[in-house]
Design goal:
It is a multi-pass membrane protein. The chain is an all-alpha fold. It contains 19 helices and two strands. It starts with a helix and ends with a helix. About 20% of the residues have low confidence.
């Protein structure tokens, strides 16, 4: 039950140069998490004004004037990477309360959906081996497009309501709906049948995607350390459910008792509401209020400047020729440059505007396609595997939940391994690692659907564990290398291509999974 929403949010952090990919040494990466100075020479202080309030939202187009992005030029496939400019580690100065609230907010985001995955064994007993595939489909198909839509619409909504009210309204409504749906699950389980968990998955997908995008956008306004804690917290609910099941003896007797089932769903819903409270504490706290006030002022300034650049017919000035290179016809992003001085006037939505966007996409694709291929392979493989946890034959009725917890923990371990100096440094190394990562997929299906490899739960658990570790490490490496390979001008197009890679990989894995389930 890989949460691709968490993966997509992580990808956005890395693509906007706020992830661990910017920090090249283990000491720097650990310093971001601990807040302590690294065991190296102290880096130069940040320029005045680059504090937590004035940092750019990582979901917005990157500023071409940013020192941290303009230094990262376009690189060829497999080219050596020059060290990018980076924010000094350990310089974020967040309080322990703020870090705890971000951790709780991340747990609250993921707990409702994690509750569905952690209930896999009971779902299989009640609804058959295809239930996890159907739940994945019901959740991911609406969740990822909704998340991307939410991230894109955040600036427009907050232009009307203001950032603080806009964030509060969206998150309160969305988080209350998904948390309440999980908490009320026991009340309708008896008469809901198979349609109930599928309907709850759709609800979590739609409203969870909207809520994820809003919370993630707000987190993007905070220092890098908040983003690091938030990203790690997204994978914490699985461990909390492991502890809960161990305490109440959920798998000790099967099927689990009504009391244990109720405790499972109440815990998932309560964690969601606790995360909502934590987010509101951050939003309406001193730093959150200052951030929102600053962003409102910036939005007003941009609106005022934008109105001055448009004539009454809606024509926008979108570029200036470079005096230093008047003969050039293409920018580094691949878009046409101007042959004469002065502003270039292009109507939004016109044929010229569409052509410029297509050129930018082609230029970004030519540079970053190996990373996109690697992302596609990695997401495709892990979704196919997790969708069949409930289809694996075993005398142990709690095997699906065991596989879910093993996958969750080992995926987290793979991401934690990126704290070490990177093993994968080029796109060609990434492609090779992706090919190796694909090997567990046919082995898994051979074990599930044929007796060729025998019926051994230990082998299956080990296979899932290895696959998850590789997936966690490889996914993170994909995002980091893709972010370093493109320059500032190409980054918006590259982010769109990463989103499309996620989406097509998900749809392809679901289509293959249903085909296998129907023919097996």
């Amino acid at each position: 039950m890989t949460d691709l929403c968490a993966e997509l949010m992580h990808a956005q952090l890395e693509m906007d140069r706020k992830g661990f990919g910017e920090l090249l040494s283990r000491e720097e990466r650990v310093a971001v998490l601990t807040g302590l100075p690294p065991g190296v020479a102290a880096p130069a202080a940040e320029p005045p004004g680059d504090d937590s309030v004035t940092k750019e939202n990582p979901l917005a187009p990157a500023s071409a004037t940013s020192a941290s992005t303009s230094s990262a030029g376009a690189q060829g496939i497999g080219a050596a990477e020059s060290p990018p400019a980076k924010e000094p580690p350990g310089n974020d100065q967040l309080t322990m309360l703020e870090l705890a609230l971000w951790l709780a907010a991340a747990v609250g985001q993921m707990s409702p959906w994690t509750a569905m995955g952690a209930f896999a064994s009971a779902f299989k007993a009640a609804h058959g081996g295809s239930i996890l595939l159907e739940l994945n489909t019901a959740y991911f198909v609406p969740a990822l497009p909704t998340l991307m839509f939410s991230m894109a619409m955040v600036p427009f909504i907050d232009r009307w309501l203001g950032h603080q009210r806009g964030f509060a309204l969206r998150v309160i409504v969305c988080q209350a709906i998904i948390s309440g749906s999980v908490m009320l699950f026991p009340s309708y389980a008896a008469q809901g049948g198979k349609a109930l968990p599928i309907a709850v998955s759709v609800v979590i997908g739609i409203f969870g995607g909207l809520g994820y995008g809003s919370i993630f956008a707000f987190n993007g306004f905070w220092p890098t350390r908040a983003a690091a804690v938030f990203s790690l917290g997204l994978f914490l609910p699985g461990f909390l459910f492991i502890a809960l099941h161990a305490i109440v003896g959920f798998e000790a007797t099967f099927p689990p008792t009504k009391e244990n089932k109720d405790a499972h769903w109440y815990f998932g819903g309560a964690a969601g509401f606790l995360g909502l409270a934590a987010f509101l504490g951050l939003l309406f706290g001193p730093r959150g209020t200052a951030i929102c006030a600053e962003k409102d002022a910036q939005a007003a300034a941009r609106a005022s400047a934008g109105s001055a650049k448009r004539d009454s017919a809606g024509v926008e000035l979108i570029g200036m020729s470079e005096a230093s290179d008047p003969e050039a016809t293409l920018s580094s992003s691949g878009a046409p440059k101007h042959e004469t001085g002065g502003p270039r006037i292009v109507r939004k939505g016109s044929a010229a505007d569409r052509e410029n966007r297509n050129i930018a996409l082609r230029a970004a694709w030519n540079v970053v396609w190996p990373s996109l291929l690697s992302i596609f392979i990695s997401i495709f493989a892990i979704v196919c595997i997790t969708s069949f946890f409930t289809a694996a034959p075993s005398p142990n009725p709690s095997l699906p939940a065991t596989l879910f917890f093993v996958k969750n923990g080992c995926d987290f371990l793979g991401k934690a391994l990126t704290l070490l100096p990177p093993l994968i440094r080029s796109q060609w190394q990434l492609v090779l690692a992706s090919a190796v990562r694909f090997v567990p997929l046919p082995l898994f299906f051979l074990h599930v659907f044929t007796p060729v490899l025998g019926r051994n739960d230990v082998f299956l658990i080990a296979l899932v564990a290895a696959s998850a570790v590789i997936s966690g490490y490889l996914n993170t490496s994909c995002f980091q290398i893709a972010a370093k390979t493109v320059n500032a001008e190409q980054r918006p197009a590259a982010k769109l291509l990463v989103n499309l890679s996620f989406q097509t990989s998900l749809l392809a894995s679901i289509a293959l999974s249903f085909t296998i389930m129907a023919t097996a």
